Amino acid sequence: SPAPGDGISVRGLHRAFGQVKALDGVDLTARTGAVTALVGPNGSGKTTLLLVLAGLLVPDAGSVRVAGHDPIAQGPAARARTGWMPDTFGTWDSLTAREVLLTFAAAYRLSEAVARARVTDLLATVHLTELADRPASVLSRGQKQRLGLARALVHDPAVLLLDEPASGLDPRSRVDLRILLRRLADEGRTVLVSSHVLSELDEMADDAVFLSRGRTVVPDAGPGGGRSWHVRALSVEALTAW
Ligand code: ADP
After folding, report:
1. Per the database record, which ranges form the ABC transporter domain (predicted)?
2. Domains of the chain, with CATH numbers?
3. What number of other Cβ atoms are within 10 A of residue 188's Cβ?
4. pLDDT tens for each residue of 203-223
């Protein structure tokens, strides 16, 4: 399991797409063993930030450490440590849920025996055992979210980067997600989870980081205010100011 202190730290991150400054000075810390919410309106830079952390996008400036490594220098090799769950579903055609996970396991070069055992475990973890051998295309939205989460976990990563995982979930599925994220954090992972709706995450996250127009913002910082908050301590006033 990951060593203590192997969380996420980001300093002075910038990334532009043409004239659009998607990231315009992001500082962020996410602790190992905690669930950190990355909250901001649509277009605030959440997906861009997660892509940089996953080693899938090169920033223009700034420094990043993820689980003790630099994903910018490592590029795609950084995938070994990070589990990435995109905010869109893949087109899986006629693959079953199990086959989807086995395909990703093969991409991480897990041996077939290891992959089969892990995939069976993961299907149980995300409550998809009974649907494992049906085409993934017939799964409901919530079931697809769970498959996406299992996909992110297939190589047992130290860091989880989840883009809008609570989006569109019914209350029951949201509770399941909260329990699962808690367990993953308690196992010693770093969990960073984005949303444009704070209320989706307020029961789930230990800390929160806010993005606005590509910048980390500090609502209600006060003297000596940090960049990370207990989500439950946040006031409505702080959020409207933001
Ligand atoms: P969020 O995930 O918070 O909705 P994004 O990171 O997706 O925000 O986008 C931040 C800004 O960067 C938006 O203005 C978006 O249109 C722009 N952007 C993101 N990716 C690209 C891209 N590949 N090409 C051009 N503009 C992009």
Report:
1. 8-238
2. 1-81+160-170+191-242 (3.40.50.300), 87-156 (no CATH)
3. 14
4. 788 888 889 899 988 654 444
**Ligand 1 atom at minimum distance from 41 CA:** 3
Which residue, by CA, sits nearest to atom 26 of ligand 1?
17
Take residue 142 and report the two structure tokens written for it.
């919530």
- What is this structure's pTM? 0.87
Instruction: Compute, in angstroms, the gap from residue 21 CA to the centroid of ligand 1.
Output: 9
Backbone angles phi and psi of 46, in degrees to 5: -60, -50
Which residue is associated with the tokens 């301590």? 233
CA of 222 to the centre of ligand 1 (A): 30
* Mean pLDDT, all residues of the chain: 84
Helix boundaries (H) for 54-170: 71-74, 97-107, 112-125, 141-153
Nearest CA to 157 out of 188, 111, 126 is that of 188
**Cross-strand bridge partners of residue 8:** 30, 66
Q: Which atom of ligand 1 is nearest to the CA of 49?
A: 6
